[in-house]
Amino acid sequence: MSRTLDVFVDTELVGKLTDQNNIWSFQYHPDWLARKQAHPLSPALPLTADKLTDGASIRPVQWFFDNLLPEEAARELLAQAVKLPQSDVFGLLEAAGAESAGAITLLPQGQTPAAGSLEPLNAEELSARIRALPKTPLNRAERKRMSLAGAQHKMLVVYHDKQLFEPSGFFPSTHILKPEHTSPELYFHTPRNEWFVMKLAAACGLNVPEVDIQYLPEPVYLIERFDRTGQYPNQQRLHVLDGCQLLNLAHTMKYSNSTVNRLKQLADQTRKVGITRLAIFKWAVFNALVGNGDAHLKNLSFFISSDKMVLTPHYDLLSTIIYADIGKHLSENLSQPMGNAITFDELTQADVLAFASELNIAPGLANRELQQLLTAVPKQAAELLQQVQSLPPHPGKAGELRMLRQICRLAIADMVQRLQS
C-alpha cells in the first residue's frame, strides 16, 4: 500500500512524504530546492533532488514526522477520535497534520492550504469540552485537529484582548491552551504550577514566552506561540525543530538521550554556540532548583532558517517532584544526570559545575551563573507567591496556594540549600 502527503512550510510546498508498505520516504519539490532561502527540514533530511528513503532500522524520515505527533494519552485520544490504531503513524499525520509545531503542515496530495476563519469560543462551551476529556479532543474535528507533540491535552486557540477564538483551516493559532490534568487527584493544579514556574523563569532571566491563566470556572493555562512572526491577525509560521528531530532520534528516546553529551551536540549546531551552551546550562540548573524532572530533549527547540539555528524560548516548565510521595520527592530522577548525580537528593554544587565543564563552560562563568540562580530563584518565588495571594478569590485558590507553597518549600528551599553547601 502506498500513501502520500504534501508537506508545506507555512504556505510553501516543500516536498512529498510517502509511506510504501511501512517504509517512509521524502522528496523535496524542485521549486523548494530552487529557492534562495531553501533550508532542509532537518539535518537528517538534507537538501537533495534524490528521494530520501528510510532503512529497516534507521528511519530518519519516519522519526522526524512522528515527532510532530502528540504522545502517550494525547496520542491515544487522537487515535480514538480519528478511528485509527496508534501504530498507524502515517494515518494520524494524515488526520492531524494540518497544524503542528512550527511551520510544517501536512495535507493530502494535491490539496493546498485553505484560508481559515475564527469562531468565538465562550467559557461555557470550552468548559463543556474540558469536562468531556479524555473521551473527546478539545479542538473540534471540523475546525482543527492538532499534531502538537507532548503528553498533555492541549488546544489550539487564538487569544486576543483576553478573548478566546478557535481557528479553522490555515488560520494560525496564536496560543496553546492546557486545562487541568485529567487526573487532578494525582497531578493537582497543573495550570497554576506551570504558570508559576514559567513566570519564575522569566523573573530569573530565562527566555520564555508570555503566559496567562483564565478561569471558566475551570483553570486553563495559555502560552503564546513563539513559532509565529508578525502581528495578529497577519501572522506567519516559523520553522522549528525539537531536540529529538535535530538529533535524528525517535520520540521514544527523549528521556534516555537527555544527557550532557546530547545537550552539547544540540548547542554545537547553533549559530552562537557559547550563548546556547550557557542558556542550556541555566535551563538545566533552573529545572533542578524548581524540581522539574521532566525536562527532556523534546522540551528544547530551535528556530531553523537557511543560514542559522537559534534556541527558542523555553516552555513546559513546571515542578514535577511535588507530585511524588512527600519524603521521597527528592529521590526522583533529575531531568539530566549532572556530574555524578542522577537524583535530586544526590546533586551537589560540584556536580553542577562538572556538568557545566562538560558543556565547555568556563568554571568562573558557570559558578557566577549558579550563584545568581541560587539567589534569584527563592527570592523571585517568594515575590511571585505574594502576587498570587493578592489575586481575586476563586474556588480553587486555596488549593493553588498550598501547591505553590509546596514548590517553594519541598523543591526550591531544599535544592537551594543543597547547592549552597
TrEMBL record:
GO terms for molecular function: protein serine/threonine kinase activity. GO terms for cellular component: cytosol. It comes from the Bacteria. Transmembrane segments: none annotated. Keywords: Kinase, Transferase. It holds the Pfam family Couple_hipA. Residues 5-106 form the HipA N-terminal subdomain domain. Residues 146-379 form the HipA-like C-terminal domain. Belongs to the HipA Ser/Thr kinase family. This is Serine/threonine-protein kinase HipA. It comes from Arsukibacterium tuosuense.
